TrEMBL record:
It is an enzyme of class 2 (transferase). It comes from the Eukaryota. Residues 49-307 form the Protein kinase domain. Keywords: ATP-binding, Calcium, Kinase, Lipoprotein, Metal-binding, Myristate, Nucleotide-binding, Repeat, Serine/threonine-protein kinase, Transferase. It is a lipid-anchor. Residues 350-385, 386-421, 422-457 form the EF-hand domain. Residues 1-28 are annotated as: Disordered. SUPFAM superfamilies: EF-hand, Protein kinase-like (PK-like). Residues 14-25 have a biased composition (Low complexity). This is non-specific serine/threonine protein kinase.
Protein backbone atom coordinates (compact mmCIF):
# COMPACT_ATOMS: atom_id res chain seq x y z
CA UNK A 1 0.00 0.00 0.00
CA UNK A 2 1.20 3.60 -0.42
CA UNK A 3 3.58 4.53 2.37
CA UNK A 4 4.50 0.94 3.06
CA UNK A 5 8.04 -0.14 3.85
CA UNK A 6 8.12 -3.82 2.86
CA UNK A 7 10.67 -6.11 4.41
CA UNK A 8 12.78 -9.04 3.34
CA UNK A 9 11.09 -10.59 0.33
CA UNK A 10 7.76 -9.54 -1.21
CA UNK A 11 6.03 -10.79 -4.35
CA UNK A 12 6.61 -8.82 -7.54
CA UNK A 13 3.53 -7.54 -9.36
CA UNK A 14 4.69 -5.71 -12.48
CA UNK A 15 2.51 -7.68 -14.88
CA UNK A 16 -0.69 -9.71 -14.87
CA UNK A 17 1.21 -12.86 -13.88
CA UNK A 18 2.52 -12.65 -10.33
CA UNK A 19 5.80 -14.49 -9.73
CA UNK A 20 6.80 -16.30 -6.61
CA UNK A 21 8.59 -14.44 -3.85
CA UNK A 22 12.30 -13.81 -4.16
CA UNK A 23 14.52 -16.86 -4.04
CA UNK A 24 16.69 -17.14 -0.94
CA UNK A 25 19.47 -19.47 0.06
CA UNK A 26 17.34 -20.83 2.97
CA UNK A 27 16.53 -24.49 3.37
CA UNK A 28 19.38 -26.98 3.65
CA UNK A 29 22.17 -26.20 6.07
CA UNK A 30 23.18 -26.57 9.69
CA UNK A 31 20.36 -25.71 12.13
CA UNK A 32 20.84 -22.33 13.75
CA UNK A 33 21.51 -21.96 17.46
CA UNK A 34 18.85 -19.42 18.46
CA UNK A 35 21.22 -17.58 20.75
CA UNK A 36 22.69 -14.24 19.76
CA UNK A 37 22.42 -13.27 16.09
CA UNK A 38 24.39 -10.01 16.26
CA UNK A 39 27.09 -11.54 18.44
CA UNK A 40 27.20 -8.69 20.96
CA UNK A 41 24.80 -7.22 23.54
CA UNK A 42 22.66 -4.25 22.47
CA UNK A 43 20.40 -1.81 24.31
CA UNK A 44 16.73 -2.82 24.56
CA UNK A 45 14.87 -1.39 21.54
CA UNK A 46 11.82 -0.49 23.66
CA UNK A 47 13.93 1.64 26.01
CA UNK A 48 14.77 3.87 23.04
CA UNK A 49 11.80 3.60 20.64
CA UNK A 50 8.01 3.28 20.72
CA UNK A 51 6.72 0.86 18.06
CA UNK A 52 3.72 2.04 16.03
CA UNK A 53 1.61 0.72 13.17
CA UNK A 54 2.72 -2.03 10.82
CA UNK A 55 4.14 -0.73 7.52
CA UNK A 56 4.89 -3.94 5.65
CA UNK A 57 5.33 -7.70 5.86
CA UNK A 58 8.07 -9.89 4.41
CA UNK A 59 9.27 -13.47 4.46
CA UNK A 60 11.48 -13.10 7.54
CA UNK A 61 9.93 -10.20 9.42
CA UNK A 62 7.67 -7.19 9.73
CA UNK A 63 8.37 -3.48 9.41
CA UNK A 64 6.80 -1.04 11.85
CA UNK A 65 6.72 2.70 12.23
CA UNK A 66 8.80 3.55 15.30
CA UNK A 67 9.35 6.79 17.18
CA UNK A 68 12.58 7.67 18.98
CA UNK A 69 11.60 8.49 22.57
CA UNK A 70 14.38 11.05 23.08
CA UNK A 71 13.63 13.16 19.98
CA UNK A 72 10.14 12.25 18.75
CA UNK A 73 11.63 11.49 15.31
CA UNK A 74 9.97 8.77 13.22
CA UNK A 75 11.89 5.82 11.75
CA UNK A 76 11.10 2.43 10.24
CA UNK A 77 11.92 -0.66 12.30
CA UNK A 78 12.36 -3.99 10.52
CA UNK A 79 11.82 -6.74 13.11
CA UNK A 80 13.17 -10.13 12.02
CA UNK A 81 11.85 -13.16 13.89
CA UNK A 82 14.76 -15.25 15.18
CA UNK A 83 12.54 -18.37 15.05
CA UNK A 84 12.49 -18.03 11.25
CA UNK A 85 16.29 -18.02 11.05
CA UNK A 86 16.54 -21.78 10.60
CA UNK A 87 20.14 -22.22 9.45
CA UNK A 88 23.51 -20.65 10.15
CA UNK A 89 23.28 -19.20 6.61
CA UNK A 90 20.06 -17.37 7.57
CA UNK A 91 21.85 -15.79 10.54
CA UNK A 92 24.83 -14.86 8.36
CA UNK A 93 22.41 -13.20 5.89
CA UNK A 94 20.96 -10.97 8.62
CA UNK A 95 24.41 -10.01 9.93
CA UNK A 96 25.59 -9.28 6.40
CA UNK A 97 22.53 -7.15 5.64
CA UNK A 98 23.33 -4.93 8.64
CA UNK A 99 27.03 -4.74 7.72
CA UNK A 100 26.23 -3.78 4.13
CA UNK A 101 23.75 -1.08 5.19
CA UNK A 102 26.47 0.43 7.40
CA UNK A 103 29.01 0.08 4.56
CA UNK A 104 26.78 1.99 2.11
CA UNK A 105 25.51 4.54 4.63
CA UNK A 106 25.90 8.13 3.53
CA UNK A 107 24.85 7.52 -0.09
CA UNK A 108 21.91 9.87 -0.81
CA UNK A 109 19.88 7.12 -2.49
CA UNK A 110 20.44 4.35 0.07
CA UNK A 111 18.18 4.20 3.12
CA UNK A 112 20.20 5.27 6.19
CA UNK A 113 20.58 2.71 8.99
CA UNK A 114 20.15 4.13 12.49
CA UNK A 115 21.07 1.03 14.48
CA UNK A 116 20.52 -2.69 15.10
CA UNK A 117 19.11 -4.20 18.29
CA UNK A 118 18.43 -7.72 19.50
CA UNK A 119 16.21 -9.27 22.16
CA UNK A 120 15.19 -12.89 22.87
CA UNK A 121 12.77 -13.14 19.93
CA UNK A 122 13.78 -10.57 17.32
CA UNK A 123 16.56 -8.70 15.58
CA UNK A 124 15.43 -5.09 14.96
CA UNK A 125 16.97 -2.87 12.26
CA UNK A 126 16.04 0.80 12.74
CA UNK A 127 16.37 2.88 9.58
CA UNK A 128 15.29 6.07 7.88
CA UNK A 129 11.53 6.22 7.24
CA UNK A 130 10.54 6.49 3.57
CA UNK A 131 7.00 7.83 3.71
CA UNK A 132 6.51 8.39 -0.03
CA UNK A 133 5.64 4.78 -0.91
CA UNK A 134 7.04 2.34 -3.47
CA UNK A 135 8.43 3.29 -6.85
CA UNK A 136 6.44 0.31 -8.13
CA UNK A 137 3.18 1.95 -7.06
CA UNK A 138 4.08 4.99 -9.13
CA UNK A 139 4.78 2.85 -12.21
CA UNK A 140 1.45 1.05 -11.79
CA UNK A 141 -0.44 4.33 -11.30
CA UNK A 142 1.09 5.99 -14.36
CA UNK A 143 1.43 2.99 -16.69
CA UNK A 144 4.79 4.34 -17.81
CA UNK A 145 6.97 7.41 -17.36
CA UNK A 146 8.20 9.88 -19.94
CA UNK A 147 11.65 9.01 -21.23
CA UNK A 148 13.14 11.96 -19.40
CA UNK A 149 11.61 10.85 -16.09
CA UNK A 150 12.66 7.24 -16.72
CA UNK A 151 16.21 8.43 -17.47
CA UNK A 152 16.30 10.42 -14.21
CA UNK A 153 15.10 7.42 -12.19
CA UNK A 154 17.43 5.01 -14.01
CA UNK A 155 20.33 7.35 -13.29
CA UNK A 156 19.52 7.09 -9.57
CA UNK A 157 19.03 3.30 -9.61
CA UNK A 158 22.19 2.62 -11.62
CA UNK A 159 24.03 5.17 -9.44
CA UNK A 160 23.21 2.95 -6.44
CA UNK A 161 24.50 -0.09 -8.38
CA UNK A 162 27.70 1.78 -9.27
CA UNK A 163 28.21 2.79 -5.62
CA UNK A 164 27.61 -0.81 -4.46
CA UNK A 165 30.06 -2.27 -6.99
CA UNK A 166 32.75 0.33 -6.26
CA UNK A 167 32.51 -0.59 -2.56
CA UNK A 168 32.68 -4.34 -3.24
CA UNK A 169 28.96 -5.08 -2.79
CA UNK A 170 26.68 -6.97 -5.20
CA UNK A 171 22.99 -6.17 -4.56
CA UNK A 172 21.41 -9.29 -6.16
CA UNK A 173 17.77 -8.26 -5.62
CA UNK A 174 17.19 -4.94 -7.36
CA UNK A 175 13.53 -4.37 -8.26
CA UNK A 176 11.17 -1.40 -8.21
CA UNK A 177 9.53 -2.43 -4.93
CA UNK A 178 12.92 -2.30 -3.22
CA UNK A 179 13.08 1.43 -3.97
CA UNK A 180 10.94 3.75 -1.85
CA UNK A 181 10.34 7.48 -2.09
CA UNK A 182 11.44 9.47 0.95
CA UNK A 183 8.92 12.14 -0.08
CA UNK A 184 5.74 11.34 -2.05
CA UNK A 185 5.94 14.67 -3.89
CA UNK A 186 9.48 14.10 -5.17
CA UNK A 187 10.07 11.26 -7.64
CA UNK A 188 13.82 11.80 -7.30
CA UNK A 189 13.86 11.15 -3.52
CA UNK A 190 14.33 7.47 -4.33
CA UNK A 191 16.06 5.21 -1.76
CA UNK A 192 17.20 1.59 -2.04
CA UNK A 193 15.80 -0.17 1.03
CA UNK A 194 16.42 -3.92 0.98
CA UNK A 195 19.91 -5.45 1.15
CA UNK A 196 18.75 -8.86 2.45
CA UNK A 197 20.31 -10.77 -0.47
CA UNK A 198 23.35 -8.52 -0.96
CA UNK A 199 26.87 -9.90 -0.57
CA UNK A 200 30.44 -8.63 -0.45
CA UNK A 201 32.48 -9.69 -3.48
CA UNK A 202 36.11 -9.57 -4.53
CA UNK A 203 37.03 -8.64 -8.13
CA UNK A 204 36.79 -11.76 -10.33
CA UNK A 205 34.90 -13.82 -7.74
CA UNK A 206 32.27 -16.23 -9.18
CA UNK A 207 28.94 -16.82 -7.38
CA UNK A 208 26.79 -19.94 -7.84
CA UNK A 209 23.74 -19.62 -5.55
CA UNK A 210 20.49 -18.80 -7.35
CA UNK A 211 18.86 -15.81 -5.63
CA UNK A 212 16.77 -12.85 -6.74
CA UNK A 213 13.25 -12.35 -8.07
CA UNK A 214 12.03 -14.20 -11.17
CA UNK A 215 11.28 -11.29 -13.53
CA UNK A 216 14.58 -9.58 -12.75
CA UNK A 217 17.04 -12.47 -12.54
CA UNK A 218 19.93 -12.51 -15.04
CA UNK A 219 20.46 -15.60 -17.25
CA UNK A 220 23.91 -16.29 -15.80
CA UNK A 221 22.39 -16.44 -12.28
CA UNK A 222 20.06 -19.20 -13.50
CA UNK A 223 23.17 -20.91 -14.93
CA UNK A 224 24.84 -20.61 -11.49
CA UNK A 225 27.92 -18.72 -12.62
CA UNK A 226 27.76 -14.95 -12.12
CA UNK A 227 29.24 -11.76 -10.72
CA UNK A 228 28.22 -8.09 -10.31
CA UNK A 229 27.25 -7.83 -14.02
CA UNK A 230 23.96 -9.51 -12.99
CA UNK A 231 22.92 -6.27 -11.22
CA UNK A 232 23.21 -4.36 -14.51
CA UNK A 233 20.92 -6.88 -16.24
CA UNK A 234 18.39 -6.37 -13.43
CA UNK A 235 18.62 -2.58 -13.77
CA UNK A 236 17.97 -3.06 -17.52
CA UNK A 237 14.79 -4.98 -16.68
CA UNK A 238 13.72 -2.12 -14.38
CA UNK A 239 14.38 0.41 -17.17
CA UNK A 240 12.25 -1.64 -19.57
CA UNK A 241 9.44 -1.58 -16.97
CA UNK A 242 9.89 2.16 -16.36
CA UNK A 243 9.32 2.82 -20.05
CA UNK A 244 6.62 0.26 -20.76
CA UNK A 245 4.92 -0.79 -17.52
CA UNK A 246 5.59 -4.52 -18.10
CA UNK A 247 8.72 -6.66 -17.67
CA UNK A 248 10.59 -7.82 -20.79
CA UNK A 249 10.51 -11.50 -19.77
CA UNK A 250 7.28 -12.85 -18.35
CA UNK A 251 5.00 -15.88 -18.37
CA UNK A 252 2.23 -17.43 -16.27
CA UNK A 253 4.64 -19.66 -14.31
CA UNK A 254 8.03 -19.19 -12.68
CA UNK A 255 9.58 -21.79 -15.01
CA UNK A 256 8.04 -19.96 -17.98
CA UNK A 257 9.66 -16.72 -16.83
CA UNK A 258 13.04 -18.45 -16.49
CA UNK A 259 12.70 -19.91 -20.00
CA UNK A 260 11.97 -16.42 -21.38
CA UNK A 261 14.99 -14.97 -19.53
CA UNK A 262 17.27 -17.67 -20.97
CA UNK A 263 15.91 -17.08 -24.51
CA UNK A 264 16.55 -13.36 -24.03
CA UNK A 265 14.24 -12.09 -26.82
CA UNK A 266 13.36 -8.44 -26.10
CA UNK A 267 10.00 -7.19 -27.42
CA UNK A 268 10.42 -3.73 -28.97
CA UNK A 269 7.37 -4.11 -31.28
CA UNK A 270 4.45 -3.81 -28.85
CA UNK A 271 3.15 -0.47 -27.59
CA UNK A 272 4.69 1.88 -26.52
CA UNK A 273 8.01 0.83 -28.10
CA UNK A 274 7.40 2.15 -31.64
CA UNK A 275 7.40 5.73 -30.30
CA UNK A 276 10.29 5.30 -27.87
CA UNK A 277 13.68 6.66 -28.93
CA UNK A 278 16.28 4.42 -30.56
CA UNK A 279 18.77 5.62 -27.95
CA UNK A 280 16.65 4.20 -25.09
CA UNK A 281 16.28 0.88 -26.93
CA UNK A 282 20.03 0.81 -27.60
CA UNK A 283 20.75 1.22 -23.89
CA UNK A 284 18.27 -1.52 -22.89
CA UNK A 285 19.77 -3.89 -25.50
CA UNK A 286 23.27 -3.27 -24.11
CA UNK A 287 22.13 -3.74 -20.49
CA UNK A 288 20.25 -6.95 -21.40
CA UNK A 289 23.15 -8.48 -23.33
CA UNK A 290 23.03 -12.19 -22.44
CA UNK A 291 26.86 -12.33 -22.35
CA UNK A 292 27.98 -10.72 -19.05
CA UNK A 293 31.47 -9.85 -20.36
CA UNK A 294 29.93 -7.77 -23.17
CA UNK A 295 27.25 -6.13 -21.02
CA UNK A 296 27.72 -2.47 -20.05
CA UNK A 297 29.13 -1.82 -16.57
CA UNK A 298 27.16 0.44 -14.23
CA UNK A 299 29.62 3.24 -14.99
CA UNK A 300 29.20 2.75 -18.75
CA UNK A 301 25.41 2.91 -18.35
CA UNK A 302 25.76 6.28 -16.62
CA UNK A 303 27.94 7.48 -19.52
CA UNK A 304 25.39 6.42 -22.18
CA UNK A 305 23.99 9.40 -24.15
CA UNK A 306 20.41 8.58 -23.14
CA UNK A 307 21.25 8.65 -19.43
CA UNK A 308 23.81 11.46 -19.32
CA UNK A 309 22.68 14.63 -17.59
CA UNK A 310 23.10 17.35 -20.23
CA UNK A 311 25.69 15.20 -22.00
CA UNK A 312 28.26 15.28 -19.19
CA UNK A 313 29.65 11.86 -18.25
CA UNK A 314 29.84 11.27 -14.47
CA UNK A 315 33.06 10.51 -12.57
CA UNK A 316 34.08 6.89 -12.16
CA UNK A 317 32.57 5.34 -9.05
CA UNK A 318 35.46 4.81 -6.72
CA UNK A 319 36.67 8.35 -7.29
CA UNK A 320 33.34 9.65 -5.96
CA UNK A 321 32.71 6.99 -3.29
CA UNK A 322 35.68 5.92 -1.19
CA UNK A 323 38.13 8.39 -2.71
CA UNK A 324 36.08 11.54 -2.18
CA UNK A 325 35.96 10.62 1.49
CA UNK A 326 39.74 10.19 1.59
CA UNK A 327 40.20 13.55 -0.18
CA UNK A 328 37.84 15.29 2.26
CA UNK A 329 39.69 13.56 5.06
CA UNK A 330 42.99 14.97 3.79
CA UNK A 331 41.56 18.49 3.96
CA UNK A 332 40.75 18.12 7.66
CA UNK A 333 43.21 19.60 10.10
CA UNK A 334 45.31 17.23 12.16
CA UNK A 335 43.15 17.40 15.27
CA UNK A 336 40.07 16.24 13.36
CA UNK A 337 42.13 13.37 11.93
CA UNK A 338 43.09 12.30 15.40
CA UNK A 339 39.49 12.55 16.62
CA UNK A 340 38.39 10.46 13.64
CA UNK A 341 40.97 7.83 14.49
CA UNK A 342 39.53 7.63 18.01
CA UNK A 343 36.03 7.25 16.50
CA UNK A 344 37.27 4.54 14.12
CA UNK A 345 38.65 2.58 17.06
CA UNK A 346 35.30 2.71 18.88
CA UNK A 347 33.01 1.71 15.98
CA UNK A 348 31.13 -1.58 16.18
CA UNK A 349 32.20 -4.58 14.11
CA UNK A 350 29.20 -4.47 11.74
CA UNK A 351 29.73 -0.78 11.00
CA UNK A 352 33.18 -1.44 9.54
CA UNK A 353 32.84 -4.98 8.14
CA UNK A 354 32.74 -3.78 4.52
CA UNK A 355 35.81 -1.56 4.92
CA UNK A 356 37.63 -4.40 6.70
CA UNK A 357 36.96 -6.66 3.68
CA UNK A 358 38.30 -3.98 1.33
CA UNK A 359 41.43 -3.47 3.48
CA UNK A 360 42.13 -7.23 3.54
CA UNK A 361 41.75 -7.42 -0.26
CA UNK A 362 44.28 -4.59 -0.72
CA UNK A 363 46.69 -5.88 1.95
CA UNK A 364 48.16 -8.50 -0.42
CA UNK A 365 50.85 -9.81 1.97
CA UNK A 366 48.55 -9.77 5.06
CA UNK A 367 51.04 -7.57 6.92
CA UNK A 368 48.31 -5.45 8.54
CA UNK A 369 49.49 -2.36 6.67
CA UNK A 370 49.00 -1.20 3.07
CA UNK A 371 52.03 0.00 1.11
CA UNK A 372 51.88 2.48 -1.77
CA UNK A 373 52.12 -0.38 -4.30
CA UNK A 374 49.33 -2.35 -2.59
CA UNK A 375 47.09 0.73 -2.51
CA UNK A 376 47.79 1.39 -6.18
CA UNK A 377 47.08 -2.23 -7.20
CA UNK A 378 44.01 -2.45 -4.92
CA UNK A 379 42.50 0.73 -6.36
CA UNK A 380 43.12 -0.57 -9.89
CA UNK A 381 41.26 -3.80 -9.04
CA UNK A 382 38.30 -1.78 -7.81
CA UNK A 383 38.20 0.16 -11.09
CA UNK A 384 39.89 3.42 -10.11
CA UNK A 385 41.47 5.63 -12.78
CA UNK A 386 43.52 7.81 -10.40
CA UNK A 387 46.95 9.03 -11.48
CA UNK A 388 50.04 7.95 -9.52
CA UNK A 389 50.41 11.44 -8.05
CA UNK A 390 46.81 11.36 -6.77
CA UNK A 391 47.37 7.94 -5.20
CA UNK A 392 50.50 9.32 -3.51
CA UNK A 393 48.40 12.24 -2.16
CA UNK A 394 45.82 9.80 -0.81
CA UNK A 395 48.58 7.75 0.81
CA UNK A 396 50.03 10.83 2.50
CA UNK A 397 46.59 12.00 3.63
CA UNK A 398 45.67 8.68 5.23
CA UNK A 399 49.09 7.96 6.79
CA UNK A 400 48.45 9.87 10.02
CA UNK A 401 51.55 8.63 11.87
CA UNK A 402 53.88 9.16 8.86
CA UNK A 403 55.02 5.52 8.88
CA UNK A 404 55.01 5.28 5.07
CA UNK A 405 52.18 2.72 5.14
CA UNK A 406 48.46 2.85 5.99
CA UNK A 407 47.55 0.60 8.90
CA UNK A 408 44.09 -0.89 9.44
CA UNK A 409 42.77 1.84 11.74
CA UNK A 410 44.16 4.58 9.45
CA UNK A 411 42.37 2.99 6.48
CA UNK A 412 39.07 2.75 8.39
CA UNK A 413 39.43 6.34 9.61
CA UNK A 414 40.33 7.68 6.17
CA UNK A 415 37.45 5.97 4.38
CA UNK A 416 34.76 6.48 7.03
CA UNK A 417 31.67 8.25 5.81
CA UNK A 418 31.61 11.83 7.01
CA UNK A 419 28.06 11.38 8.24
CA UNK A 420 29.46 8.93 10.81
CA UNK A 421 31.99 11.54 11.91
CA UNK A 422 29.17 14.02 12.35
CA UNK A 423 27.04 11.72 14.48
CA UNK A 424 26.83 13.47 17.80
CA UNK A 425 27.41 10.40 19.96
CA UNK A 426 30.67 9.68 18.11
CA UNK A 427 31.82 13.29 18.45
CA UNK A 428 30.99 13.38 22.17
CA UNK A 429 32.91 10.12 22.65
CA UNK A 430 35.90 11.55 20.78
CA UNK A 431 35.83 14.80 22.79
CA UNK A 432 35.58 12.87 26.06
CA UNK A 433 38.61 10.80 25.03
CA UNK A 434 40.74 13.94 24.81
CA UNK A 435 39.11 15.73 27.77
CA UNK A 436 40.69 13.48 30.41
CA UNK A 437 39.46 15.41 33.48
CA UNK A 438 35.93 16.02 32.16
CA UNK A 439 36.24 19.80 32.45
CA UNK A 440 34.53 20.52 29.12
CA UNK A 441 37.83 21.84 27.71
CA UNK A 442 40.81 20.08 26.16
CA UNK A 443 44.10 21.45 27.50
CA UNK A 444 47.59 21.24 25.99
CA UNK A 445 48.52 18.66 28.63
CA UNK A 446 45.56 16.47 27.67
CA UNK A 447 46.48 16.72 23.98
CA UNK A 448 50.07 15.79 24.85
CA UNK A 449 48.82 12.70 26.69
CA UNK A 450 46.65 11.71 23.69
CA UNK A 451 49.61 12.20 21.34
CA UNK A 452 51.76 9.93 23.49
CA UNK A 453 49.02 7.25 23.50
CA UNK A 454 48.95 7.39 19.69
CA UNK A 455 52.76 7.65 19.31
CA UNK A 456 52.51 11.06 17.65
CA UNK A 457 55.67 13.21 17.55
CA UNK A 458 55.93 16.55 19.45
CA UNK A 459 55.88 18.47 16.15
CA UNK A 460 52.40 17.05 15.54
CA UNK A 461 51.23 18.52 18.86
CA UNK A 462 52.65 21.93 17.93
CA UNK A 463 50.71 21.83 14.64
CA UNK A 464 47.49 20.86 16.42
CA UNK A 465 47.77 23.71 18.90
CA UNK A 466 48.51 26.22 16.12
CA UNK A 467 45.45 25.07 14.16
CA UNK A 468 43.09 24.70 17.10
CA UNK A 469 42.84 27.63 19.44
CA UNK A 470 44.52 30.81 20.57
CA UNK A 471 44.12 30.40 24.36
CA UNK A 472 45.71 26.94 24.57
CA UNK A 473 42.44 25.13 25.27
CA UNK A 474 39.56 23.77 23.19
CA UNK A 475 35.88 23.85 24.18
CA UNK A 476 33.39 21.19 23.07
CA UNK A 477 31.88 23.63 20.53
Amino acid sequence: QPGSQPTAKTDGHAAPAQPAAAMRRGGAGAPADLGSVLGHPTPNLRDLYALGRKLGQGQFGTTYLCTELATGADYACKSISKRKLITKEDIDDVRREIQIMHHLSGHPNVVAIKGAYEDQLYVHIVMELCAGGELFDRIIQRGHYSERKAAELTRIIVGVVEACHSLGVMHRDLKPENFLLANKDDDLSLKAIDFGLSVFFKPGQIFTDVVGSPYYVAPEVLCKKYGPEADVWTAGVILYILLSGVPPFWAETQQGIFDAVLKGVIDFDSEPWPVISDSAKDLITRMLNPRPAERLTAHEVLCHPWIRDQGVAPDRPLDTAVLSRIKQFSAMNKLKKMALRVIAESLSEEEIAGLKEMFQTMDADNSGAITYDELKEGLRKYGSTLKDTEIRDLMDAADVDNSGTIDYIEFIAATLHLNKLEREEHLVAAFSYFDKDGSGYITVDELQQACQEHNMPDAFLDDVIKEADQDNSLSKE
